[in-house]
Specification:
Keywords: Hydrolase, Metal-binding, Nuclease
Structural class: alpha/beta
Binding site for a divalent metal cation 2: 154, 179
Strand content: 15-25%
CATH topology: TIM Barrel
Family: Belongs to the metallo-dependent hydrolases superfamily. TatD-type hydrolase family.
Number of strands: 12
Protein name: TatD related DNase
CATH class: Alpha Beta
Strand order of the largest sheet: 1-4-5-6-7-8-9-10
Radius of gyration: 19 Å
CATH superfamily: Metal-dependent hydrolases
Low-confidence stretches: 311-315, 317-324
Binding site for a divalent metal cation 1: 117, 228
Number of helices: 11
């Protein structure tokens, strides 16, 4: 098990997923266990977690979960594969207004920190056609502009259309992160050309040698880490696994025990492994320094008030803030 010498923020956890309720493929295998999952995360140095919303219903549930712990926050938005829900509602504008009302409620509670997960996914057009995805991706910039929040973004095999829509709407939002990045070096460079954009990586971003080469070209000052749990774990067959140092005991779901991870189900504590792969892949020996940079990146986008407070404290003490 890893030491908690580093401070980490997992920017993407799908706590609304059935696996955290103990349900796998429609079958109840064990009791809901978010408290046990969180205990492992906090003991590993995870300082905060952002719970992902991917639909209006899911965003409501994400906010409810975020309200259970001071270290949990969430997003409000509609995933590209679910954008059909705007039209299926029978009242797309009413659906948008419900998202806006939920975002405002969550902001008042100090819990909603981004609009999303939204974007384009051309790998899964069977869930939602490209024209519908594009229409409601663009619509959600209106949401970000209305509530003055950054965007939590999803881009899969859609770099050209995604960046074209982004470039038209840059003035409407204060910044964003394209999470779970698995695309090409060319797409990476397109994203990095937007000054206020970060890139988020997880186990799915670290599968192949090509993935690792793409990662090497992302400056650490533009990077964030995540698990996207319960998915996107780092497996022994992945190219990135050679750099993993931290391991946790796990048991099959049929033999569930609260003190062990469920085999094959990713968890926020494993964001430590993502940090280790980033460090190893980039040849960075100072893992604590790397974690500090990534932490500050994440605060800069989602928790800017913390950076302001840190700067004020250092000014009062006569020191200056060093940018990594």
């Amino acid at each position: 098990m890893a030491s908690a010498a580093v401070k980490l923020i997992d920017i993407a956890v799908n706590f609304t997923d059935g696996m955290f309720k103990g349900i796998y493929h429609g079958k109840q295998c064990h009791a809901a266990d978010i408290p046990a999952v969180l205990a492992r995360a906090w003991s590993t140095g995870v300082d905060r977690i952002i719970v992902t919303g991917g639909s209006l219903k899911e965003s409501r549930e994400a906010l409810e979960i975020a309200e259970t712990d001071g270290r949990l926050f969430c997003t409000v938005g509609v995933h590209p594969t679910r954008c059909g829900e705007f039209e299926e509602s029978g009242d797309p504008e009413g659906h948008f207004q419900a998202l806006l009302a939920l975002a405002k409620e969550g902001i008042e509670k100090g819990k909603v920190v981004a609009v999303g997960e939204c974007g384009l996914d051309y790998d899964r057009l069977h869930f939602c056609p490209a024209d519908v995805q594009k229409k409601y991706f663009e619509k959600q910039f209106e949401l970000a502009e209305a509530v003055k929040l950054p965007m939590f973004l999803h881009m899969r095999a859609a770099g050209e259309d995604f960046c074209e829509i982004m470039s038209r709407n840059l003035y409407r939002f204060p910044g964003g992160v394209t999470h779970s990045f698995t695309d090409s070096a060319a797409d990476r460079d397109r994203l990095l050309s937007f000054e206020k954009m970060f890139i988020g990586v997880n186990g799915c971003s670290l599968k192949t040698n090509e993935n690792l080469e793409v990662l090497r070209g992302i400056p650490v000052e533009r990077l964030m880490i995540e698990t996207d749990s319960p998915y996107c774990d780092i497996r022994n067959t992945h190219a990135g696994s050679q750099y993993v140092k931290s391991v946790w005991p796990s048991k099959k779901k049929e033999k569930y025990e609260p003190d062990s991870m469920v085999k094959g189900r990713n968890e926020p504590c494993l964001v430590r492994q993502v940090l280790e792969v980033v460090a190893g892949c980039k040849g960075i020996a100072d893992i604590e320094g790397l974690s500090k940079t990534l932490y500050q990146n994440t605060c800069r986008l989602f928790f800017p008030q913390d950076l302001d407070a840190s700067a004020d404290a250092q000014l009062e003490s006569g020191t200056t803030v060093q940018d990594n």
